[in-house]
Amino acid sequence: MSRNLDQSLHFTIQSSRLLTFTVIAIHLLAALSCWLAAMAISYKLMLLALVCFSWLLNGASAKTCPIFLRYTAQQDWCLCGMGGEYLPIRIRPSTVISRTLIVLHWTRDEKCIGNLVIFKDAMSPNDYRRLLVCLKISGCGQG
User: Fold this and answer.
1) CA proximity to 128, closest of 12, 1, 8, 4
2) How far apart are CA 36 and CA 108, in angstroms?
3) β-strand 112-119 against 101-108: which pairing, if any?
4) Which of 51, 58, 55, 20 shows the shortest CA–CA distance to 36?
5) Angle at which helices 17-36 and 41-60 pack, to 10 degrees?
6) Which contacts of 139-143 are long-range, i.e. CB under 8 A and separated by 24 or more positions?
7) 39: DSSP letter
8) Which residues of the chain have pLDDT under 70?
């Protein structure tokens, strides 16, 4: 297995339908709970407006272009977004790994902290399995 990790592994992360449905469901539940709360109607409308604003912000920042993740033995992990340049990142121990979901917590230059939610349908089944194995073997994350 160590021979396979000496090679460069590339992963393409597409947009996920499961992530979209999850975000919509969470916002709908939040809107429903705001409406059913025992408050004055003005407070309910204000909270509903905040939930709608959050949903619009989330929809505007939704990934439309793929994100590329690369693992090499020399550079460890690299992430490539819309800029087109691979930037070295360090996977944090708070990363969560499961069969259906990966929550990738990463840092770059100790200043930039980010996270990436990867549902199983955002990648091909073989790539998702390879990413799981690669994260577990490299000692990243919990799961």
Assistant:
1) 12
2) 42
3) antiparallel
4) 51
5) 170
6) 140/91, 140/93, 140/95, 140/97, 141/91, 141/93, 141/94, 141/95, 141/96, 141/97, 141/102, 141/104, 142/93, 142/94, 142/95, 142/96, 142/97, 143/96, 143/97, 143/98
7) S
8) 1-6, 59-64, 75, 81-83, 141-143
Q: Would you call 90 helix, strand, or coil by DSSP?
A: strand
Residue 90 structure tokens? 């360090």
**26 residue type, one letter:** I
Domain boundaries, the chain: 2-15+65-137, 18-60
pLDDT for 65 equals 74
Q: What CATH architecture is 2-15+65-137?
A: Roll (2.30)
Tokens of 5: 């990790």
**Strand pairing class (76-80; 67-72):** antiparallel
Instruction: Specify the pTM.
Output: 0.77
